[in-house]
Amino acid sequence: MSIKIEPRKESDKGGYLCLPLCKNVPERKDGSVKIHCPVCGEMCWWNKLNIGVMFRSKLDGAMCTECAIRKGAGNDNT
User: Fold this and answer.
1) Which of 31, 33, 41, 54 is most buried (most C-beta within 10 Å)?
2) 15, exposed or middle or buried, with CB in 10 Å at 0-12, 13-18, 19+?
3) What is the pTM of this model?
4) Could you give phi then psi for residue 30, rounded to 5 degrees?
5) pLDDT at 3 over 80
6) Is 60 exceeded by the pLDDT of residue 17?
């Protein structure tokens, strides 16, 4: 399997915001709150600034990093 990761272009649309998993990042001091991933239910971090990022980047939504990687790789059997 091969995944190409590159910076987002101004013309790009779609995709998902990766929310850090609490099991990988146990503490945050930036005002983030713990939420359940809308896809798999794992605890991840949400910040109110994410709404602006999703709007400006024309993203389809947000999910935990693991779900976003699976979806991007075409294996979204979560």
Assistant:
1) 54
2) middle
3) 0.79
4) -110, 15
5) no
6) yes
Answer yes or no: are the C-beta atoms of 71 and 27 closer than 8 Å: no
- Chain-centroid distance of CA 1 in Å reads 21
Give the pLDDT of residue 7: 85
- 33-36/43-46 β-pairing: antiparallel
The total of other beta-carbon atoms located within 10 Å of residue 35's CB is 15
- pLDDT tens per residue across span 23-61: 999 999 899 999 999 999 999 999 999 999 999 889 999
Q: Is 18 exposed, middle or buried (CB count within 10 Å of its CB: 0-12, 13-18, 19+)?
A: middle
DSSP for 19-77, please give it.
Answer: EPBTTT-----SS-EEEE-TTT--EEEE-TTHHHHHHHTT--EEEEHHHHHHHHTT---
Long-range CB contacts (< 8 A, 24+ apart) of 6-9? 8/57
